[in-house]
User: Fold this.
Amino acid sequence: MMKKPRDLGHNISMIDLFDLGVAERTGTYVLHEEELAIIETGPSPSVPYLLKGLEALQIDPADIRYIIVTHIHLDHAGGAGVLLEKCPNALVVVHPKGKRHLADPSRLIQGAKAVYGEKFDQLFSPVVPIPEDRLIVKEDGDTLTLGSERTLTFLDTPGHSNHHFSIYDSRSRGVFTGDTIGVFYPQLLKDGLEYCLPSTSPNQFRPEAMLQSAERLEQLQPERIYFGHFGMLENPRAAFEQLRFWLPKFVEAGEKAIANMPGASMQEKAESVFRKLYEEVSAFLQERNISPTSEAYDIIRLDLQVCSMGIVDYLQKR
Assistant:
């Protein structure tokens, strides 16, 4: 199942982490500089794929200086503790609001179990605490210079979560966006479609903040976007436009479901939101001649189930 790391240009490689056991779901970006850095680790079950990818790139894990996570959700940072054991010289770079949860992941684990239930162990276990002295935080506007041609600038971008930064890269003039502006589905590129959907998972989703963060990133006029899920898009405008198109529809689907189901449980409401969203997304794709058998539907279905929980959670707190 191992795929060769992909060369994305600008001294960046991407390793497919086979998160959830599927290809083209979550990636680690390797920044080849004097100070070697990676962005995102994926969950712990993905770390063997990450290490194999480093081996294919002829990188010794001992040479990695920085392991950067855009936010602390387990599909992005859950493997950091396990990986760190193999990277004796690395520090983990995290958002200020994420640091204590990497040092003590008990609440992270509890939150993920609430969403993923009995699948938790298979998808995320083990989640290993990171020693405080191996963690460094980057505040809004802070920088990290990796080489003479590459400085990273960290930007606080809430909306998907409160502990999320995006990273502007001076060398590629690109932005590593984590989940801030959504998920990109490269499976649809062969059908000629550059397709993104918002990522509204529980429990800190805030649509207004998400749009403000996207606007802030758009003002940087990036030339490319590096998504947590999955890969590089050299048409950033498509991503920003689709976020603005879909996000109100996501919230509206939630509002309708909640209005019509006053006595229903959170799970029943989320299922109703999911059905509505899946119907809209499927219709959109079929209008663009995407075959109903496209492999993208499996991942989209899973994403929309989690997104629906986040939408209901947001509306119930509002």
The mean pLDDT is 96. The longest helix spans residues 236-260.
